[in-house]
């Protein structure tokens, strides 16, 4: 625990000092003399800080245990080098850099307006040392946008629930079937909250395949999703796509967001997608109040799609094993009755609140998994005409 916290603060502090990262990068090529470091910085940044600054930065990096001085034979001049800890921090920086660098993505067409920030600033918002739901889910789906901490957390879950990858794919399948259905019913505006790291086909791709003019607003609170959304969420020329970096626990912030208001019209019916996100809202954060507030702002005839992890079918032996990956207490599975309470007042579509294993099973991949294999409920409700 101590090591993790230490690494976490070191990583963050390193990113906040302008010359720390370039110096670590220069030393990443191997031990170097003072003059070589200065030359390396000029090559990397096309400018170099004054000698006083380089000395100060090296002293600070040494006091943090990230660099050290090595003696050389036949000279009193010493070489600067990364320590093992310095190499670990540099590896994390490189990893975050490559996951967040838009140049690494193919952009078809971009209609998302978002300020471009410096890569160091983007990386500072991302903490690779603690698992995050979006990145862990990406790993479970076979994606590459995740770090060691996310993979370890996924393995901890897999140890007690070996079908968790299947469950993640099934959840994605439920989302896709639901969006296809809604678009077929004439829904042309979608608000997808807790959208995750883009995984094709995304909500807008499914909706726009049916109605090219469909408008989709994505919301997520994970900074890595933000960097990917910017590069990947694209739209047909007729439609519109927007991404909001916001938190479901602040429904007012989402509903009053300028980008949302200029993309979808809340006075007309929309489809709201809350798929695999509500279980990250703790009871003391008032999930029912959040949903009630959102549903209350929707026009009659709007649709609400929910999927939610449940332990209703989980053997009690497995439950204690899941405490480890949920050590931060962020995750809360819920029962069918609890979900029914969330959806009070909506007209529930057949088959009601049901395991996603059974939701429109005919259209889903065969053979169908069991209820225990997926451990996720799905439901679609409709806001009544007033
Ligand atoms: C398991 S993923 C689901 C992604 C997608 N909805 C799907 O089902 O394929 C959960 C997503 O919810 C996001 N999330 C968790 N808590 C959130 C919150 N309070 N506000 C917004 N997004 C949140 C995570 O960052 C993550 O991307």
TrEMBL record:
It holds the Pfam family HxlR. It comes from the Bacteria. Residues 16-98 form the HTH hxlR-type domain. This is Transcriptional regulator, HxlR family. It comes from Actinoplanes regularis. The lineage of its organism: Bacteria, Bacillati, Actinomycetota, Actinomycetes, Micromonosporales.
